Amino acid sequence: MTMKAFGFLSFGHYALPGQKGPDARAVLRQALELAKFADQLGVNGAYFRVHHFAAQGAAPMPLLGAIAGSTEHIEVGTGVIDMRYENPLQLAEEAAALDLLSGGRLALGVSRGSPEPAAQGWKAFGYWSEAANGADMARSKFERLLAAVEGQGMATAASLDEQYPRIYQPGTLLPVFPHSPELRKRIWWGAGSRKTAEQAARDGVNLMSSTLVTEADGRSLAELQADQIARYRAAWKQAGHDWTPRVSVSRSIFPLVTARDRQLFGLQATSSDEVGYLDDGDATFGRSYAAEPDLLIEQLKADPAIQAADTLMLTVPNTLGVEANLAILRNFADYVAPALGWIPATSGPVKGYPIKDG
Predict the structure, then answer these.
(1) 180 and 99 in contact (C-beta within 8 Å)?
(2) What are phi and psi of 121, to 5 degrees?
(3) What 3-state class would DSSP assign to 254?
(4) Domain layout of the chain by residue ranges
(5) Strands across the sheet with 274-278, in order?
(6) Which backbone phi and psi does 251 adopt, to 5 degrees?
(7) What does the DSSP assignment read for 240-305?
(8) What is the pLDDT of residues 195-223, one digit of tens each?
(9) Which CATH architecture describes the domain 5-347?
(10) Which positions ≥6 away from 57 have C-beta within 8 Å?
(11) Cis bond before residue 80 (omega within 30° of 0)
């Protein structure tokens, strides 16, 4: 297998008053402009991280809507929304509306969420959890999101005396609206481990794997992710789902083509992954790639997770502005992606690899 598609993943960092760099307004507008240029290049996706109580992307739906309304082919998505901070029914309504408006170009990435600056910040949003890290609440909200997206009843119709307008028989189960029939197949789980990847398969959602995994056993990130993907696909087959899922991985990749590229990104390359401590456990953080296209192609072809996934997300240094980030995407599209099996977005929606027997 080879990579079919690539997109960019932005953290949406911005400067607060008194700091140097673009402010929140500038970063949002730059994200829109970058996505429009990327759409013209045939880049397959524009994806955005979601964090709270930090100077970076937090409320993705307005931005995704603006991008979807200004482009023709590019997929718009999140990587990922922290379910601990969400009302699942409101998210289901917003996602369905965006999916319908975009013509099915939404990739709704969600997860339990990563560590945040605030101590149990979801409480400030009005949510409570028995678990210190909110994992139990995130799980229950995720299950309710899936049910809502599927069109299951979420409330019951009031008595005729209480209804306005009177459109339902009392006691009728009511779904949330609008409903996008295919949205259920466009939900992704951001899995940080092999265990959560297998659970995503059982849940019947697509798999997103980031630039780190919350595991460390001496293997590289690429090897851990390749194992994660293999386990996911095996669990998917065992679950017996009747459709083909997609799998994405994220990497920091900088093709060095011009003198300007070398000046900006020549020192970004790291020779190996790093092991650190995150969320009460060891984690493996992926290396960064920065090289001439020929060497870069060789390195990425040797990455088993990139080869196993259908979609590659390039993390971009968004604070450098549109021009620098567009150069990364253009260089990758012109000099690297074709050798990896890239199919531009103009050829149609990305499809996952069929789950094989054996």
Answers:
(1) yes
(2) -60, -20
(3) strand
(4) 5-347
(5) 212-213, 281-285, 274-278
(6) -145, 155
(7) T-SS---EEEEEEEEE--SHHHHHHHTT---SS-EEEEETTEEEEEPPEEEE-HHHHHHHHHT-HH
(8) 999 999 999 999 999 876 776 677 888 88
(9) Alpha-Beta Barrel (3.20)
(10) 10, 11, 12, 48, 49, 50, 51, 63
(11) yes
Q: Are 251 and 286 in contact (CB under 8 A)?
A: yes
Phi and psi dihedrals of 316, rounded to 5?
-115, 145
* Residue segments in the chain with a per-residue pLDDT below the cut of 70: 212, 215-216, 273-275, 277-281, 357-358
Q: Is the pTM higher than 0.85?
A: yes
Query: What's the CA gap between 296 and 291, in Å, rounded?
Result: 5
Backbone angles phi, psi at 112, to 5 degrees: -65, -25
CB 201 within 8 A of CB 221: no
Q: b or e along 244-270 (b: 16 or more beta carbons within 10 Å of the residue's beta carbon)? A: ebbbbbbbbbbbbbeeebeebbeeebe
Count other Cβ atoms within 10 Å, centred on residue 342.
21
**114-165 confidence digits (pLDDT tens):** 888 999 999 999 999 989 999 999 999 999 999 999 999 999 999 999 999 9
**Residue carrying the six token digits 């920091």:** 252
